[in-house]
Amino acid sequence: MKNKSVIAEADDVRRAVEMVSLGARMQMLEAETSLSRERLLKIYKEVRGMSPPKGMLPFSTDWFMAWQPNVHGSLFMAFHDYFRQRPGLNGLDAVIKAYHLYLDHVDAAALEPVLSITRAWTLVRFFDADMLQRASCGSCGGRFVTHAYDPVHDYTCGLCNMPSRAGKGKKRGKVSVNARAVRSRALID
Amino acid sequence: LKRSDYQDEIRELNLAHLMLAQKMLREDRETAMFRLGIGDAVADLLIGWSAWRVPRWFCRRFASMMRCLRACSRGRGATWRVRASMPPSLLPANRRTSRRKEPE
Description:
heterodimer
C-alpha cells in the first residue's frame, strides 16, 4: 500500500466520496478501495457530517426474498447485468452505475428506494458467491432473485402473484431515504 | 384552410434529441447507452460528431430537402424562415452567408 501511485489513490478517494454520498457503509468502502481506515473515516465524516454506523452488515440472503426487497433487488440486478457485460467497466463501477439507474427509476415512479447501496453491493456479492440465482417468471417472463438451487421450473414472481399484504407493512428502508437525501445534495453541488 | 406541416417542429425536436443524446454519452457513456438503447457503433458515431458537425449535418439533410419542397409549394422566401428558426449559434457563420448567395 506504501508504493501506491498518487493517481490510483486519487481515484480511490473519488470513488469513496461517491460511495459515501450514495449511503455506503464503512465495510463496503474498506472492501472496494485500498485507502486506510483512518482516511475512509475522514472522508465519511466530511461527506456525511457524522460518524459511520457501527455493527455488522446484514448477511442474510433471506432479506431479498421478501416481496418488496425482491422486486427492487431484481430491478437492480437487471441494470447490473447490463453493466457487468460491458468490457472495461470494473465491478464497483458497474454497481455504482446500476445503483444510480435504480435510484432514477425509483424516483421516476415516485417510490421510496428500498435497496441501499450497501444492500445492492451485498446482493452482487451473493450472486458472485452462488448463493442466489435468478429465475424467469412463468407468467411475465421477468427474471427475479431467488435462492440458489431452488426449483424454478414453475416460478411465479411477486408482481404476478402478489401476496395479500404486499406493500401494507410499516417498515421503510431508513438507510435509503437518507441516501437519497444525500444524493440530491451531491447533485446540486 | 390552413394546415401546418410541423416540419420545423419535427426538425427542432430531432436536433434537440440528437444533441441530448450526445451530451448524455459524453457524461456517462455506459449509462447513456443503456438509456438510449444503442450499441457501441452508434455511440461512437454520436460521440465522434463535433458540436459543429451535428447542426451542419442537419442543415444539409433537412434544409436542402425543405428547400426543394417549399420552393415547389410556396415559392421563394419560405426557405429563409426555415433557416431562421435554427438557433443562430448552431449555424456556422460562413455557411450561412454562403448559402444566402445561392440561387434557389
